[in-house]
């Protein structure tokens, strides 16, 4: 249980990453991914990378610059422009549903205008899920200058689209529905220079 703890990615640039293990029974027609990050990077960096054998950016949360997030599904992406965090914690949730192709993006408990992405697509279930690196091949192919440096916490993946109430609950660290990946019961393996530490402040 990583309650009130964080992964500290100490080096910049870094070859370190964290492998996450999720029990995926079947392909995903809907999902929500949430996490909280704290960094002073201004260069591009990956936050959450879910690759299959067919698509290295099957699901990817990527920050090319401080005022922009890219949300990928099946190698295609939409861009959400955001205010510069002024170097504070940022909580993001991104959700997607196959039936409508609607992509939702929430930053610090607030929704951004919805966008269209990969309607009718299915996300593969056999996946390599990594924090801290962006995969260019299944489980590897890293570019160190897309690596994450800083602190990550509160990582979740659900096989549903969360309701607005639950999106806000995730931001506030309140009770959440059972997840494929849950920070409170995370199965993970650290590769390289990543340290688990208590969170410095709420």
TrEMBL record:
InterPro entries: ConA-like_dom_sf, Pentaxin_CS, Pentraxin_domain, PTX_dom. Residues 3-202 form the Pentraxin (PTX) domain. GO terms for cellular component: extracellular space. SUPFAM superfamilies: Concanavalin A-like lectins/glucanases. Keywords: Acute phase, Calcium, Disulfide bond, Metal-binding, Secreted, Signal. One of its GO terms (biological process) is innate immune response. One of its GO terms (molecular function) is complement component C1q complex binding. Its cofactor is Ca(2+). Binds 2 calcium ions per subunit. It is found in: Secreted. Disulfide bonds join 34-93. The keyword Signal applies. It holds the Pfam family Pentaxin. Homopentamer. Pentaxin (or pentraxin) have a discoid arrangement of 5 non-covalently bound subunits. Belongs to the pentraxin family. This is Pentraxin family member. It comes from Catharus fuscescens.
